[in-house]
Amino acid sequence: MPSVPSLAATLHMRLAEAVSAALPQDTPAEWIDPMLRRSDRADFQANGMLALAKRLKANPRELAGQVVESLPPNEEIGSVEVSGPGFVNIGVRDAAVLRNLAARSDDERLGVPYAERPGTTVIDYSQPNVAKEMHVGHLRSTVIGDAVTQILEFRGEKVVRRHHIGDWGTQFGMLIQYLVEHPHELDHESDAADAKDQGEAAMARLNRLYKSAYSLFESDEAFKTRARDRVVLLQSGDEESLTLWHKIVDESKTYFQGVYETLDVEIRDEDIVGESAYNDGLQAVVRDLESSGVAVRSEGALCVFFDDVKGPDGTPTPLIVQKSNGGFGYAATDLAAIRDRIGTLEADTVLYVVDARQALHFRMVFETAQRAGWLPEGAARQLAFGTVLGKDGKPFKTRAGESVRLVDLLEEATQRAALVVREKAQDLTEDEIRERAAQVGIGAVKYADLSNSMTRDYVFDLDRMVSLQGDTSVYLQYAYARIQSIFRKAGDEKPQVHPTVELEPAERALALHLDEFGDTLAAVAATYEPHKLAAYLYELATLYSPFYENCPVLKAETPQLVQNRLFLCDLTARTLRQGMTLLGIRTPERL
Ligand code: ARG
């Protein structure tokens, strides 16, 4: 069933409109903002009369009084009064709350409206590097990118995923040359059974290749020269070099897919469009930037300069599009990628889910593309994320100072989660425990990442992440599972709403929060802030607790009350499930 906008409109939105319409007739449109909020004192409080009174040079309490006059109680509004210095307090009728939620519940999208003008967004996320391990930075990019993608798609945006993997560059000369000279280096016996083990085995072979090639490169001048020549061969399209390069890339993809499976994210092969894919566009980038004067030659290199980007000694730091030896780097590829994304894929918006430490790179790349006329102003945006820290507050590293392997972290998270699951559920089989532990452990890692505002650094603390107390995914999963256990007793029949039955305070609080889901998602999609969805869900689970404790469901006094409470349980569960799904987190039926 499609979302009907009028049904989808939350009470909040409708009340805000009503208050706006109740303002003095001649109020200029740009001053109209009722600033309606949920409140402890009433269901809603409008604070906008204070600012407006100042502008109109009126008395705020009088202005608020006028608004109250022209806002008589009706089907929705049960009470309305002036409070404090000029606030308007509004109470909503129980029946209106319940009817609104019933309409939301009848919609499979839970009343979440589609975006009014959906466009095309290209999102660049989860971009690990070929022949290297994935680390905790790739976790952030993958998890945030996946959530943003799901949220935008849910709102009706067309989203094109681009995994800009690091599959090009000088290190491939060394690896390929080594393979030319040791053709059996990547050979192996039959494949392991599952994707994860296959991936691990592939990575082990790549590590071995990398080590051997690197040590030869460092110790043998003649090999070094052959490796450098090999890069030139590769870039000029030499068949043999390309075949071996493909072999290395494929090994890496096998490894990536193993990690993605563990992480429970779907990454499709056709969306993996690495740096190499833009190779053919690089010459044109250089030609066009040079002829338009956007880039200039400086000591042989092709550079773009910026007034406000300078090194510590005050000399300008340019973006280098082409090195003096003719080679291309990271910047050139990103510029060619922008032309493809805006020009060919016709993106309205291009997003880059990349570490905040690359902010300067993207600022320069975007500015260059704009000057060249390839990128409309404001169309590109880096969703810059902070660093994952260890318990010592420093960037997360192993004791030996190496970056932590993502697979090790995920394994540890799942093991911790298994302890929690085992303790909670006595009657689960070993298989069930393993499955739940993965859903709980991986969910915990994702949630800990997503519930922090993206730009913030956060401490990777597994004990906290898998805790049943506090703002964790386990807490949310537990709330969901608790509701499912009620339905195992009550049966699956869809509960019927009885709008004439009064709501208790805990029911009202839960119901009014449920009603905000659509608005929350719209805001989250508009600002690319998954942490606000996480905060919404956490509050939902938090409001469910007092409801669960104070309002017996199956043992409620009347059959109507039983139905109404079952209805609230059902909508809470579906809202939790939908929200968590958008964050990439599973909701097991039992915990
Ligand atoms: N592969 C890079 C890294 O691991 C991230 C690529 C980001 N995307 C881009 N279009 N530059 O740091």
UniProtKB/TrEMBL annotation:
Motif ('HIGH' region): 128-138
Quaternary structure and interacting proteins, as annotated: Monomer.
Cell compartments where the protein resides: Cytoplasm
Stretches assigned to the DALR anticodon binding domain: 476-591
Domain of life: Bacteria
Entry's Gene Ontology molecular function annotations: arginine-tRNA ligase activity; ATP binding
Domain Arginyl tRNA synthetase N-terminal: 13-92
Main location: cytoplasm
CC per GO annotation: cytoplasm
Name of encoding gene: argS
Known EC number: 6.1.1.19
Keywords for the protein's UniProt record, in alphabetical order: Aminoacyl-tRNA synthetase, ATP-binding, Cytoplasm, Ligase, Nucleotide-binding, Protein biosynthesis
Protein family per UniProt: Belongs to the class-I aminoacyl-tRNA synthetase family.
GO terms, biological process: arginyl-tRNA aminoacylation
Catalysed reactions, semicolon-separated: tRNA(Arg) + L-arginine + ATP = L-arginyl-tRNA(Arg) + AMP + diphosphate
Protein name: Arginine--tRNA ligase
